[in-house]
């Protein structure tokens, strides 16, 4: 089943990349870097609402999901109360749709199966350019939006004390599309005298928590990870902070973006925006999300500038070809992981 899922994600993405535009955008004077399905005449870098009102969508059931950075089941439970709030504010049924890869999440939004979504920082650009995603908020507090840092962790008993000592070591990045787990290290580490792939061997762990656990177990000498994921693991008791040393901390990045499909009816969008702005996190959500207690309004044009700069510096293209490559790599990793699980299961039987 897992291999079928990975194959279907890749197939859908390839078809998406090569298909003719069956629901082409309205006559458009400017698209910028957006896919040719979309228009950006106000130049805010996200897709405009279609000019043709018959293309506005007002579904009876809204489909919501959150990025698959860690165990999807954890976040389905965490957002249950917010889903009820969305239902109250929109007057519609809201269901949670579990996705298993970033490429699958983008494809679901692009195909119209997903309406409201939280994308992790790196893949947000793919969602905006290829799927008509309109980011509107990030997690935060009364003081402002919640950010995170790229941190490089090693074991506390490691002989690695500074970044240039990563030369010749085995370092875990998370996934190709991850901002803090791959793109930011490639853009920022050279400033600290270290270049991934050239000065150290990059291995992909798949997820931030797997990088953390891999460093702890000694599988990796070091790992660049998102500080918020690391802190959540410490708070949950999954790891002990004293078992690690942080040898690098980056400037602050925005966390996962929350937003909606560009072609939703503007009256519905108004209700969705009100749902996000009026909601206050439950105690359980605050624990899960590092003390954040609300959604804070952002714009993709301004607040994702640093992320786009990192993508540009690393040659990451938020294009169909880029997403196809991402899907191929995610499918390959999923197949490899499944093969390892089956081998382990067979060994134990």
From TrEMBL:
TM helices/strands, residue ranges: none
Superkingdom of origin: Bacteria
Keyword Signal in annotation: yes
GO cellular component: ATP-binding cassette (ABC) transporter complex
Family designation: Belongs to the phosphate/phosphite/phosphonate binding protein family.
Species of origin: Oceanospirillum sediminis
Secretion signal span: 1-24
Coiled-coil positions: none
Gene expressing this chain: phnD
Keywords for the protein's UniProt record, in alphabetical order: Signal
Biological process according to GO: transmembrane transport
NCBIfam families: 3A0109s03R
Protein name: Phosphate/phosphite/phosphonate ABC transporter substrate-binding protein
């Amino acid at each position: 089943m897992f291999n079928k899922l990975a194959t279907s994600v890749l197939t859908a993405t390839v078809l998406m990349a090569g298909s003719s535009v069956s629901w082409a955008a309205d006559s458009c004077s400017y698209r910028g870097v957006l896919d040719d399905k979309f228009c950006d005449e106000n130049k805010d870098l996200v897709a405009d609402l279609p000019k043709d009102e018959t293309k506005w969508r007002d579904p009876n059931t809204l489909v919501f999901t959150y990025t698959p950075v860690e165990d999807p089941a954890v976040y389905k439970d965490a957002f249950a109360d917010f889903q009820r709030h969305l239902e109250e504010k929109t007057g519609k049924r809201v269901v949670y749709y579990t996705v298993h890869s970033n490429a699958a999440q983008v494809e679901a939004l692009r195909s119209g199966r997903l309406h409201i979504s939280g994308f992790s920082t790196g893949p947000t650009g793919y969602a905006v350019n290829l799927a008509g995603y309109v980011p509107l908020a990030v997690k935060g507090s009364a003081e402002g939006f919640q950010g995170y840092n790229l941190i490089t962790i090693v074991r506390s008993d490691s002989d690695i004390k500074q970044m240039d000592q990563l030369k010749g070591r085995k370092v875990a990045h998370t996934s190709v599309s991850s901002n803090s787990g791959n793109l930011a290290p490639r853009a920022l580490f050279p400033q600290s005298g270290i270049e991934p792939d050239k000065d150290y061997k990059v291995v992909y762990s798949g997820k931030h928590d797997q990088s953390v656990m891999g460093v702890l177990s000694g599988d990796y000498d070091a790992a660049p990870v998102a500080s918020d994921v690391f802190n959540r693991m410490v708070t949950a008791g999954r790891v002990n902070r004293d078992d690690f040393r942080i040898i690098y901390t980056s400037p602050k990045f925005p966390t996962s973006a929350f937003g909606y499909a560009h072609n939703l009816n503007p009256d519905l969008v108004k209700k969705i925006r009100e749902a996000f702005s009026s909601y206050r996190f439950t105690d359980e959500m605050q624990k899960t999300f590092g003390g954040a207690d609300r959604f804070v309004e952002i714009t993709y044009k301004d607040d994702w500038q640093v992320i786009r700069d990192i993508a540009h510096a690393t040659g990451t293209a938020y294009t169909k070809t880029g997403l196809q490559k991402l899907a191929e790599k995610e499918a390959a990793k999923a197949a490899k992981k499944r093969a390892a699980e089956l081998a382990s299961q067979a060994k134990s039987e």
